Amino acid sequence: MKNKLKILNILFIILFFPIFFESVHAEDPILISISSDLDQVIFDGKWTHAYEWKQSSYNRFVFDDGNEIHLRTGHQDNFIYVHINFASDTNIDKGSDNAMICFDTKNDKTIIPQSDDYCFSTTLDTKNSFTYRGNNSSIDDSFDIISNDKNFVAKGTASDKYDRYSKVPHTSYEFRIPLDVLGRSDNYGFYVSVYDGDSQNHYSWPYEIKNQTSFSSPSQWGDLVSPDKSLPEFDLLIMFSLTFSLMTVSIIITKFNMFKINTFRH
């Protein structure tokens, strides 16, 4: 009986531990909220007034060297809105500082970017804003520049007195991403990266991405989740995993008991 319990414990750890391990160490998703006034945003790259981005979700990223990013996200009608506030980048490098956001529209976490993976970038105080699409070729040359959608907007500039997080001028970026490009989903893969031209460093979310550059593999991206929609796919996946694991344990125990019976008879 004791041996049987030991076997059950070992099987439980082997089969269930990967599920628990993944849940503990995965980055928390960014929850994007629905808004009623983001269509009033003035796309000048900064907080134009003190209430401009108030109706949006908020996330704060603090890095090991003390740098911090304040992220606002929201969706309304046919657009996703993103504001990246790099409050610690007070060295304004026009034409060099830049920001990028990426979406994995199927959230299939592929290693090599596919045609369902999109990135959008803008450079501080320039008209250089670009749309990129995965080309399924290689990690080194993984995205192609494509034509910007007519409704895509991205702008970066220095903050001013209306900024919500710091009165010291710093880099700030605003994006409006058309859902006609991404397609509608309640769970995107998501990646944020800013480049500090002064230190020549990239600061990205998720934090765990190593050797940070502008682009990274979608397999390393986090999740952007809309909580005002249900996510049955996740629940079904966990249920299937648990059911399969229990069936496997049951089959192994049955075979073990049959082996003991046959051994005893002989």
From TrEMBL:
Domain of life assignment: Archaea
Transmembrane segments: 236-256
Record keywords, A-Z: Membrane, Transmembrane, Transmembrane helix
Protein name: Carbohydrate-binding domain-containing protein
Species: Nitrosopumilus zosterae
